[in-house]
Design a protein that fits this description.
Two copies of one chain form a homodimer. The first copy, chain A, has 213 residues and is an all-alpha fold. Chain A is 75% helix and 0% strand. Chain A contains eleven helices and no strands. Chain A binds a DNA duplex (30 and 30 nucleotides) through α1 and α3.
Chain lengths: 213, 213
Amino acid sequence: MITETKVSLSEQTRERLLAAARVVFSENGFQNATVREICRRAEVNIAAINYHFSSKEALFVATLNFEPLLALCEKTNQGSISAQERLLDFIHEFLRQLLDEKEFSVQCQFMARELAEPSPVLAKIVQEAIAPIHQFVANLVREIVGKKISEEELRRCVFSIFGQCVYYRHAQPVIQRLHPKLRYDQREIEAIAKHIGEFSLAGLKQITQNQCP
Amino acid sequence: MITETKVSLSEQTRERLLAAARVVFSENGFQNATVREICRRAEVNIAAINYHFSSKEALFVATLNFEPLLALCEKTNQGSISAQERLLDFIHEFLRQLLDEKEFSVQCQFMARELAEPSPVLAKIVQEAIAPIHQFVANLVREIVGKKISEEELRRCVFSIFGQCVYYRHAQPVIQRLHPKLRYDQREIEAIAKHIGEFSLAGLKQITQNQCP
DNA sequence: TTTATTTTCAAACAAACGTTTGATACAATC
DNA sequence: GATTGTATCAAACGTTTGTTTGAAAATAAA
């Protein structure tokens, strides 16, 4: 019988593997992360991954958790504030999940990596996480600009917003070399969110006016 | 004596290697590109890379050519049109180099890959190509917004512009799954350039006004 | 305690990678 | 034609990768 009050040793190694995998995957991406480094940081034997998860890919899938990201959409959707303010809130929270290193949501950083380097489970990630939040932002933008712009133009607006946000994570190796002193502390994240929010709202307004002169 | 009128066989394999390397590197990035595939597409022996270039990394360096990108900056700088129009021109040309598959400038696509996955020569790429065009756009933006915004805010404006552009290349694996029918033909590239240009000019205007109410 | 099951471990495995080797073919010079 | 330097080739090298193995240790069941 499995003891439920005390955590078994087997469960401990499972959890340690998951914790280490989250760190290593988010730091190096799926392909560059090695099972040896994950096991070393989890202080378990190399064979543990295949014993508990059957493969590196299955371990990767097990670390995926889109709940905080999807919860962010639902949370932002509630409340009776304007669509503009909801978009600003979303950008702020999205950037926090994407950039804050102390935050316990490394999931967003997975996504940013998977954008460029497609792993075997990219289809699952797109379907379960990226598509919903893209759709969510598309709905917000539609609410802001009205029905005057085409679907193609709407898509470009959504890309503009995500492009600005993701750049900070995605281009970090370059940004670090261009601006070595730049750190993503809470103050900086708020400043970035404020910038992207104002920048984008002005952009959306301009696009709306252009399409209907 | 080396024949200069006719291209020697040795030169032929060198050129074929370079051509194949450009394709394979831009499609797969430095790390994922294999010397075996490069040689297969160049129809040369596997040892040819190390014989003619001494290593895979040196071959990669040999394929780098930032001239079209830097020429773009100088070309855009000339002329007596306004800074706004010059920024629009730059965005359009940058996107053409970044997205047009028929274009002979795969260099920009290198850069987009290197942003996320740092290769051994990232420092060189940043120093010789990315830093100059970042500085170029920063100067343009400074010309547009005047001296009313801080250096930090200026940097964020530049990131917003590049972030929007690079997203189309960088997030392509995801975009392809989100919008399977989307193709980067000349019409689409022009539409994207028009969108990002108007979106960004409106954003810059808003940022300027906010900083000096 | 004895037996059965589960978990750990060092070692090895097969595959893929960039690179090197030594023989062979080619071209140029004498 | 003989000799020398260059270029090509199949094969193998040494690493690193994820994965598997079979015995040993630990835990649970009898």
